[in-house]
Design goal:
By secondary structure, the chain is an alpha/beta fold. It has helices spanning 45-55, 70-81, 150-162, 198-205, 210-219, 258-271, 276-290, 303-309, and strands at residues 6-12, 15-21, 37-43, 60-67, 85-92, 99-104, 110-113, 134-142, 166-171, 193-195, 224-228, 234-238, 241-245. The chain contains eight helices and 13 strands.
């Protein structure tokens, strides 16, 4: 195994989430509405995953773009406070830090509102020298900026493999730029682990069953497919293995970032030398714990917390 300064380097979107919980659509005045609560939380797939990985004990870095603004300062401060190395955070006066408005229902599910700041496509392929310092990279997320450009995706995963890094990749449904699996066909065989949720896997595969969804990704060359099934748990599938786990019975408050915490949990245990079954079990718990608090980074505290939740602490 190569020597690395980082166990894992996260690459992708960084933003601030304005989370509105318990929104009442019935106005109380001509221009006023009420909600149970409102809060500001750092977010974005790369930020959520990096913070979770650092809390789980991994040496973690991040490559992302932020504006020279208060929202960007908030994200950098949160990353530093949680032990994430920020030397590859790119700050720009030209592009503001994206802010997402999230409406969270009582069952923890949510809907989000994005804006043009989310479409800013910075160029991580220009900074691939830092991949030499990473045992693994995590792309968050395919089909969203900056990974909504097939050439950028291919150049990033190719560079990662040239540096012998394990490649993890989350996915999102397209928003500003529409891509399909066929558009990134060249990059897919270079991805070791991909983490779509059920809606994403169905959208990209055209299938309606988890095994069929996974098979489409596998047939295109992805090594391992982990589909997050929400209340139905999760399933991992590769050429010779299939593992299904049920979801944990937990009082979900907010599902924001649960998939990112799930991915960080899986990477954490795999990079520690765990097998697929133990890594998936750990990841499943991380995703569940994340939903117990508002925001992507408040529920998960540490690896010991997860082991205790699983009944594995000494």
């Amino acid at each position: 195994m190569k020597q690395a300064n980082y166990d894992i380097l996260y690459i992708g979107m960084a933003l601030v989430d304005s989370i509105i919980k318990g929104f009442d659509p019935i106005p109380v005045s001509a221009s006023g509405y009420r909600a149970v609560s409102g809060s500001l939380n750092v977010g974005g797939e790369a930020v959520n995953g990096a913070i979770a990985a650092a809390k789980l004990g991994l040496s973690t870095g991040i490559l992302c773009a932020l504006g020279q603004d208060a929202a960007g300062d908030m994200v950098v401060n949160a990353l530093e406070q949680n032990g994430v190395d920020v030397q590859y955070v790119i700050r720009s006066r030209e592009h503001p830090t994206p802010v997402t408005t999230m409406f969270v229902r009582e069952d923890g599910t949510r809907r989000s509102v994005t804006n043009q700041a989310h479409a800013y496509n910075f160029h991580p392929e220009q900074y691939t020298d830092c991949f030499a310092s990473a045992q693994a990279i995590s792309i968050g997320s395919l089909f969203r900026a900056p990974f909504d450009d097939p050439e950028i995706i291919y150049r990033v995963v190719t560079a990662a493999k040239q540096h012998s890094a394990i490649v993890f990749a989350d996915t999102k449904l397209p928003n500003f730029r529409k891509l399909a699996l066929a558009d990134i066909r060249e990059a897919l065989p270079l991805i070791d682990y991909i983490f779509p949720n059920e809606d994403e896997a169905g959208y990209f595969s055209g299938r309606d069953d988890p095994d069929g969804m996974a098979d489409v990704f596998l047939d295109l060359g992805v090594k391992n497919v982990i589909i997050k099934l929400g209340a139905k748990g999760c399933v991992l599938k590769n050429a010779g293995e299939r593992i299904h786990l049920d979801a944990h019975d937990i009082n979900a408050v907010d599902a924001t970032g649960a998939g990112d915490n799930f991915g960080a949990g899986f990477a954490s245990e795999l990079l520690r030398g765990g097998n697929h079954a133990s890594a998936l079990r750990f990841a499943n718990a991380c995703g569940a714990i994340c939903t117990s608090a508002v925001g992507a980074s408040d529920g998960l505290k540490s690896r010991d917390q997860v082991l205790k939740y699983l009944g594995l602490s000494r």
